[in-house]
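Hi L., both proteins are below.
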Amino acid sequence: MASSKSNRKSSDSQSSENRVVYQEFGSGSKPAAFERAAQDLPPNQQDLRVQASRKGRKGKTVTVISGFQTTPETLEKLLKQLKTQCGSGGTVKDNTLEIQGDHAQKLVPLLTQLGYKAKISGG
């Protein structure tokens, strides 16, 4: 009987090296399956909302453009174009563009010229 236990232990130790007992989220072998799918829709199929906001920015006005369904690389290129047209800074946060200052009136015609459907949102 002692020999059967030793055989079982040796086989368990070999298989336990690559055996996962518990894993809450995802697996290291297939990280692509858990990445967020980024659709790169053409500009004419995207509905954008442009609004000026002051919330959480210590009273500073920021123009927020939301509703993008595109890759982060495309957003970075678009942000660079819009920042140069407005003459101000900005950033990309969670698939939205934030441009410093109140430029909503200036940005809507620029976005429609680039092929996007854009509307001013809020007051």
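That was the first. Here is the second:
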Amino acid sequence: MRSERDDRHAREPADGPGSGRETDDTDREIDAEVQHALDRLTLLINVTEALASTLDVDTGLRRLCRTLVPGLADWCAVDLLDEHGELHRIVVEHREAEGTSPGLYEGLLPPAKGSAAAGARALLGVGPVLLTDFAAPPDPHDPLHAREQELFERLSADTAVVAPLRARRQVFGVLTLARTRREAALTEDSLPLVEDLAHRVALAIDNARLHAEAQRTAERLQRSLLPELPDDGPLELAARYQPAVANARVGGDWYDAFVLPDGAMTLIIGDIAGHDLRAAVMMSQTRNMLRGIACDRKEPPGKILARLDAAHQILYPHQTLTCIYALVERLGADEPWQLHYAVAGHPAPLLVTQEGETRFLTGGRSMLLGMDPDGHRPADIESLPPDSTVLLYTDGLVERRDEGLDRGLARLRQHAAALAREPLATFCDELLSGLVDDGTDDVAMIAVRVAPPHTGPAVATP
């Protein structure tokens, strides 16, 4: 028989004492906290990837804002100080495409000094600050505050967080995140996450600027070491150097030209392995070493490269480079010009006749320098037709990541043939503009155009 106690327990509600309802609520709260932590971690990972995907600050910040919108904000903006202390709005990104058009609110901003704008306070290191009231009327004597209020009003900000982009005791700019909907408002709980994000952004900006400064230093060094071409002889010379632009890299590409005591014109093109300041410095040292060997020894091109290889092995072991050393010379005023050349692992010179016929000069080839200092370095001699052009170049002119080298070489021949009768400066400029598309590697090139045999003084070979 059922007792009275059994009946009482049977009549207790399911959510009475001892039920699992409280345990379920606790589990749901724990699950929500775990999910919140995972969402935050995912956002930070995505932000880091967006910032690390490029060394260009503007591009990285635009990708950053596209990561934050709409996950953390309905719209966001980034303002940066330039080297002159002027504030520029780099990007404004809205969750709705029609919310703002590219560049609408971007550009130079009014001065921040003395302004009551939240962005001006952030530049002093204050923040991050949560804004919930945008009712203050624009102050005509505070143009930055007026611009800020205008942005909040036009993009319907309901709540916003303004945070300084601060790293290594320096403020680089301001990050603004805004919500337009009350049900998804930013709160005080959002401030630690925004502060973390702003710090990561500031570090990325600082690193990108330091990298850019190192690259500018290397490029200035590299350009300062490029020679002035001889211009008082019967040979016409033109040269070009273009650093990589896709990723701001500077490498060890160089060209050189000078007249030896016997009257022969020396042409040199080379490429040190690497794309950094060290490669640029090593390039300058190698160039000067090759100049010294060439002027002192007055030997055929193959022997000059062999001497350079031996010296390079002693001074820079395990460092490789490619090089062409060539002499343009002739036996007498009525004799044809000759190209006496040796190639160490470098792309072959291109000969272009006045009629547009082209061919690569494939003689005098040996392995790149820095591999075998005892290896044989052959040379070859090519007779040059009147008004023909010889082009020496580095691989950045013909190589592309998405295709084979043969296709790039064929493209070079096609372009050079079409430019055969153009002035030499135009010949070089058009090759650069027509062949270098993605700018992933630096390019050096030097071209010589020979005159008819009867023009200019005779240049005697040794």
